[in-house]
Design goal:
The structure is a single chain. With 102 residues, the chain is mainly beta. Helix content is 0%, strand content 21%. The chain has a domain of 71 residues: Thrombin, subunit H, CATH 2.40.10. Strands 1-2-3-4 form a four-stranded antiparallel β-sheet, with no helix packed on it. InterPro entries: 6-blade_b-propeller_TolB-like (IPR011042).
């Protein structure tokens, strides 16, 4: 079980018909597919980042390009190598400190 909290402003406007921006092409490991996605994060610029658990990777879809995602972490099979992940379940954004900041 998971929960998702969404803050929708009172003056929000959106399309009546939704557009699939990630996956939607059956289970698989192609860049337009997901396999047991666990969580997602939407950045301020509408970039969508998804933990693609059974493909052992983190996928990213840039705003305006819903056709193919980009592997941004893992994607080289299950493992503990620098280029591998083991069933990632969560994604979040960390803020980068400004130069000279702490």
């Amino acid at each position: 079980m998971f929960s998702l909290l969404v803050n929708i402003p009172a003056n929000a406007i959106w399309k009546q018909n939704g557009v699939t921006i990630a996956g939607g092409n059956g289970d698989g490991d192609a860049t337009n597919q997901l396999h047991y996605s666990e969580s997602l994060f939407v950045d301020d610029d509408q970039t969508v980042v998804i933990a693609d658990c059974w493909n052992h990777r983190i996928m990213q879809w840039k705003n305006g390009d819903p056709t193919n995602g980009q592997v941004v972490a893992g994607g080289k099979g299950k493992g503990d190598g620098l280029h591998q992940l083991n069933q990632p379940t969560d994604v979040f954004k960390g803020e980068k400190a400004a130069p000279g900041g702490s």
